[in-house]
Design goal:
The chain is α+β, with helices and mostly antiparallel strands. It is built from two helices and twelve strands; from the N terminus they run ααββββββββββββ. Helix content is about 35%, strand content about 30%.
């Protein structure tokens, strides 16, 4: 049986060789000329080949497109994550830069006033949410030498005074709180008065009980008066924005634009001791 099978294979091989030789014989006239049979077959199969080629291309695109989309989606996620990281780093760098600028101003301020003031730097850690311009909490307390009635300032000017102290924190009453009263003076006219916060005034200040004969002008500077107050003399407070008569008519009052931006308090200086010269 195996011998017969081998004979069949040899016969088929011989027929295949004869067909190939015959084909070569008819095409021997030139490489570029096709045999009549080949030409007819090519003409018949050409449209079919085109359809098969287009179908194959579309199938290839159909097969490869999901893989490409998956790859693009993965790349997009990677780029989005990288972008988020870079944005976060940029915000951190910006915050650090702004903090460095503020701290440098505080350091320069402390250096300039070193002969007169001893101060302790502190960060603002909380606010009275019921009265945003009433009080703040700082991260220094008794353990750092902070005591009640110590003056609190920034390089811009007066902030307030310490009213309560714990081991490592302190509460500061802002000068914008209506409960606060600061002995003050107009620097140009030497007009005395009391500085108060305005109820519901969103950080506004007013100077009351100004003698009528010492009326300040708009733009005049207001400073602390000292005069036995807990506040050292000569600390900047703000500028006169508007002057008008009090209801009683015996004194004048002035609206004051504070130097300190109470909306953006982040670091302060607590005056632990002072010896100011007369301005």
């Amino acid at each position: 049986m195996s011998g017969l099978s081998l004979a069949k294979k040899l016969v088929l091989l011989g027929l295949l060789i004869i067909v190939m030789v015959t084909g070569l014989h008819y095409s021997a006239g030139g490489i570029e000329r096709l045999t009549p049979l080949a030409s007819s077959v090519r003409d018949i199969l050409s449209p079919v080949q085109r359809v098969i080629m287009i179908a194959g291309r579309e199938v290839s695109n159909l097969v490869t497109t999901p893989a490409k989309l998956i790859g693009l989606s993965k790349r997009y996620r990677q780029l989005d994550e990288k972008n988020s990281q870079l944005e976060s780093q940029l915000l951190q760098f910006k915050e650090i830069s702004e903090e460095n600028i503020r701290l440098k101003k505080m350091l320069d301020f402390r250096t300039d006033l070193a002969p007169q003031l001893a101060t302790e730097a502190a960060a603002v850690t909380g606010r009275d949410h019921g009265n945003w311009f009433g009080s703040i909490t700082i991260n220094k307390g008794e353990n750092q030498g902070i005591k009640s009635d110590m003056t609190v300032i920034t390089p811009a000017g007066l902030v307030g005074r310490v009213i309560r102290v714990s081991g490592n924190t302190a509460e500061v009453l802002l000068i914008t709180d209506p409960r606060s009263g600061v002995g003050s003076m107009v620097q140009e006219t030497r007009s005395p008065g009391i500085l108060e916060g305005v109820t519901g005034g969103q950080g506004s200040l007013k100077m009351v009980h100004i003698p009528a004969d010492l009326t300040p002008d708009r733009g005049n500077r207001v400073i602390t008066a000292g005069l036995g107050s807990v506040f050292p003399k000569g600390i900047p407070i703000g500028t006169v924005r508007e002057v008008r008569k009090e209801e009683a008519g015996l004194f004048k009052m002035a609206e004051i634009e504070p130097y300190v931006d109470f909306n953006r308090l982040e670091e302060v200086l607590v005056v632990t001791s002072y010896k100011l010269e007369t301005p």
